[in-house]
Amino acid sequence: MITTSNFGKSAKHPDAVAISQGVPRLYAGKRYMPLAPPRWLLKAKDSELFDREYRKQLDSLDARQVAEDLGPDAILLCWESFNVRCHRRLVAEWLEEKLGIVVPELGHERSESMPFSEQPSKWDAKTNVSTQSRMVF
């Protein structure tokens, strides 16, 4: 079963597959760059833009081929903690939709994963904090 996780928890697992542009310095596992968001999109720090453009990236891929390339027991890795908005949940939902499979977070039931659209974004939090701090006199 394909699952998701983060580098902190699963980087040393033999089935780990990084789906991010950057990886930890000592990470020696597999990478699958077609699922990595482009750097320009990450630098934009705009949740709506990210959602729209990354979904286009996913839709340009063949989900069956992606699953085959990843392998049946792949653990898709990136940086964010569980249930913080992260492209790995979007990838999981995309695979679920296209292939009719279940892609849980490793060590969790699928029902424990918040839908991508409901996950809090670290970008939104920073935007709100910076906006509030600029308004203080």
Relevant terms:
single chain; 137 residues; 9% strand; globular
Detailed description of the structure:
Mean pLDDT is 87; it is low at 126-137. It is globular and about 35 Å long. A four-stranded parallel beta sheet has the order 1-4-2-3. It has one domain. The chain has 137 residues and is an alpha/beta fold. The protein is built from six helices and four strands. The chain has helices spanning 7-10, 39-44, 47-59, 63-70, 87-99, 122-135, and strands at residues 3-6, 16-18, 30-31, 75-78. Helix content is 42%, strand content 9%.
Short overview:
The chain is of the alpha/beta class and 137 residues long. It is built from 6 helices and 4 strands. Helices cover 42% and strands 9% of the residues.
Topology:
Layout: E1 3-6, H1 7-10, E2 16-18, E3 30-31, H2 39-44, H3 47-59, H4 63-70, E4 75-78, H5 87-99, H6 122-135
Parallel strand pairs: 1-4, 2-3, 2-4
- Summarize the helix and strand pattern as letters: EHEEHHHEHH
Please bin the fraction of helical residues: 40-55%
Give the number of domains: 1
Number of strands: 4
Termini Cα gap:
54 Å
* Mean pLDDT over all positions: 87
Question: What does the main sheet amount to?
Answer: 4 strands, parallel
Specify the overall morphology: globular
**How many helical elements?**
6
Q: Strands of the biggest beta sheet: in what spatial order?
A: 1-4-2-3
Indicate the radius of gyration in whole angstroms: 15 Å
> Spans with pLDDT under 50 lasting ≥5 residues?
126-137
Beta fraction of the residues? 5-15%
- Classify the secondary structure makeup into a structural class: alpha/beta
